[in-house]
Amino acid sequence: MKLKSIHHIAIIASDYNKSKSFYTQILGLHILKETYRQERDSYKLDLALNGQYIIELFSFPKYASRATRPEATGLRHLAFVVDNVDEAVQELRSKHIPVEDVRVDKITGKKFTFFFDPDHLPLELYES
């Protein structure tokens, strides 16, 4: 088997409309398709970044909370590449999104920082 790429990342939202707004209005992801699945009482929102399908955002009437801190096993965070971390931080803060202080990766020398989606999923911005 030879893996070619990541197809998508699935995220379950506790408040679908809040998360939909966050990922589209705050982060600027593009909606490819939104489907309501009546048999599951669930929405599935397909989101793209620069034309590439990357996230499935789900709603479910029953869900389990995710442990985020201290470090929990499983998915640690999602990372997005930006040209300028400092500018991205300013933009997020102007939209009232709390962002951690910018740090420098000791291995690569690149700037990075973290913030959280509405369900406290850690998201990283990493400078290209």
TrEMBL record:
<keyword id="KW-0479">Metal-binding</keyword>
<dbReference type="InterPro" id="IPR004360">
    <property type="entry name" value="Glyas_Fos-R_dOase_dom"/>
</dbReference>
<dbReference type="InterPro" id="IPR029068">
    <property type="entry name" value="Glyas_Bleomycin-R_OHBP_Dase"/>
</dbReference>
<dbReference type="GO" id="GO:0046872">
    <property type="term" value="F:metal ion binding"/>
</dbReference>
<protein>
    <submittedName>
        <fullName>VOC family protein</fullName>
    </submittedName>
</protein>
<dbReference type="InterPro" id="IPR051332">
    <property type="entry name" value="Fosfomycin_Res_Enzymes"/>
</dbReference>
<feature type="domain" description="VOC">
    <location>
        <begin position="5"/>
        <end position="128"/>
    </location>
</feature>
<dbReference type="InterPro" id="IPR037523">
    <property type="entry name" value="VOC_core"/>
</dbReference>
<dbReference type="InterPro" id="IPR037478">
    <property type="entry name" value="YwkD-like_dom"/>
</dbReference>
<dbReference type="Pfam" id="PF00903">
    <property type="entry name" value="Glyoxalase"/>
</dbReference>
